[in-house]
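Re-run with default settings, no changes from the original entry. Doing this only to confirm the output is reproducible before filing.
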Amino acid sequence: QGLSSVYVVGADRQLLGIVSMEDAAEAAKKEAKSLDGILIRDIPTAGPDETLDDLLPKATSGKFPIAVIDKNRKLLGVLPRVAVLTALAGENNPEEEYGRNYVEQNETVAI
């Protein structure tokens, strides 16, 4: 499974935004020196204590996974939208490691 986006973090893993792989490839072709033109800052985020009810609107309205951040915007993890919907439906995911595997397959880039 290929990556569709990359989370961008700054000092101390502070979340800055996300870059789509398509935009990153295009910027690389143009030999861009900065992510400023392609960094998407308006992305869904959640605190570590949010409930499924809190997460549902975020999971259904956006196209990116939900970034889990602390009060200082430190990136703690990534919650795939499908994981929220699956949990809400009460379905058992046959692979308990789904969320962890997703995070392992998605990268963060510190700048």
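The first strand starts at residue 5 and ends at 9. The chain has a mean pLDDT of 81.
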